[in-house]
UniProtKB/TrEMBL annotation:
Residues in Inosine/uridine-preferring nucleoside hydrolase domain copies: 4-299
InterPro entries hit by this protein: Inosine/uridine_hydrolase_dom (IPR001910), IUNH (IPR023186), Ribo_hydro-like (IPR036452)
GO molecular function, one term: hydrolase activity
UniProt lineage: Bacteria, Bacillati, Bacillota, Bacilli, Lactobacillales
Top-level taxon in the UniProt lineage: Bacteria
Entry keywords, A to Z: Glycosidase, Hydrolase
Name assigned to this protein: Nucleoside hydrolase
Any Pfam family the entry gives: IU_nuc_hydro
């Protein structure tokens, strides 16, 4: 069992990732920190509690984090995730649980003031992590692992021709994390997450296996489906963040390479990850870039957990149905 702290901006795919991580037998989620990104931070906190209530895990502490990126105004992705950040799904929560008194950056700073056998899984803009590094420059030495959904190597961006949303939203934070974390960053970028399409066929399969989970997934992803159709003529939706969970559980689900990475903070390439694969800059690698992914293995793991079904059944159905 690996212990992890999740930093996120829920967000439809963050919500799926949180449920995947919380219900996974391989992970113990110790705390959740929330950052402004897909939606303003208070909406993200609210959505985190919706997921915790669904998972019956309101005992997991939630910390409210940064309201805005380090040096820029927040540009939310409510066009993608809905004004409620939850796909305009109408899903509400019953409980009145509130976030902890400490802020996200205070919590991260204090928690990692000593060496821990605990990693961070970052699913949103890296503002909270950068603020924590500013408060505690040793943070990187004290975390066991750092996996981030963000950036892109060869695939095109989703906010500009070259930039992925999380790093585009707060490029200064991303730059600081890549420059000063001091431990290898596992970059789960668009090269691999774009392969993870939650299709209408997979959704229909969910209905056959677990009607209650299907109903939730249908409501949550409808807006995301419409967005992908409108902008990319894609049937279904790309669920980025759950792949970062799968990578955290087992890095073997993706292949990649080590490289030095720098994040652009200015101009038309703002937010771009420059991946020096061929070592032009002669700098020590600071990241592992994931390049290919076993999508069938991903969907087997993901659906086994979200549909609460036997892994062997899901694996053989996905093979027969040629899904994933
Ligand atoms: C990332 O941006 C957000 O919209 C998603 O939640 C994901 O973390 C993809 O670019
Ligand atoms: Ca996210």
């Amino acid at each position: 069992m690996q212990q992890v702290i999740i930093d996120c901006d829920p967000g439809i795919d963050d919500a799926l990732a949180l449920e995947f991580a919380i219900k996974s037998k391989e992970l113990e989620v110790l705390a959740i920190t929330v950052v402004a990104g897909n939606a303003p931070v208070d909406i993200g906190v609210e959505n985190t509690f919706k997921v915790l209530e669904r998972c019956d895990r309101l005992d997991i502490p939630v910390y409210r984090g940064a309201e805005i990126p380090l040096e820029r105004p927040n540009v939310s992705a409510q066009d993608t995730h809905g004004m409620d950040g939850f796909g305009e799904s109408g899903i509400v929560r019953q409980s009145k649980v509130q976030p902890q008194k400490e802020t996200a950056e205070e919590f991260l700073t204090n928690f990692f003031s000593e060496k821990r056998d605990v990693g961070i899984l970052a699913l949103g803009p890296l503002t909270n992590i950068a603020l924590a590094i500013q408060l505690n420059p040793k943070l990187g030495q004290n975390i066991q692992r750092f996996v981030t959904m963000g950036g892109t190597y060869k695939s095109h961006g989703n906010c500009s021709p070259v930039a992925e949303y999380n790093y585009w939203c707060d490029p200064d934070a991303a730059k600081m994390v890549y420059e000063s974390l001091g431990s290898t960053i596992e970059m789960v970028g668009l090269d691999v997450t774009r392969e993870i399409v939650f299709s209408p066929a997979i959704l229909e399969y969910c209905r056959r296996i677990n009607p209650e989970a299907y109903e939730y997934l249908r409501k949550l992803t409808r807006f995301y489906f419409d967005f992908h159709w409108q902008y990319e003529h894609l049937l279904g939706c790309v669920i980025n963040d759950p792949l970062a969970v799968a990578c955290y559980i087992s890095s073997e689900i993706c292949n990649g390479f080590d490289s030095y990475v720098e994040v652009e903070t200015q101009g038309i390439s703002i937010g771009q990850t420059l991946v020096d694969r061929y070592d032009f800059w002669q700098k020590e690698p600071n990241a592992r870039i994931l390049e290919t992914v076993d999508t069938k293995e991903f969907f087997t793991q993901f659906l086994t957990v979200l549909l609460d079904a036997p892994e062997a059944t899901i694996a053989s159905d996905l093979n027969l149905l040629k899904l994933g």
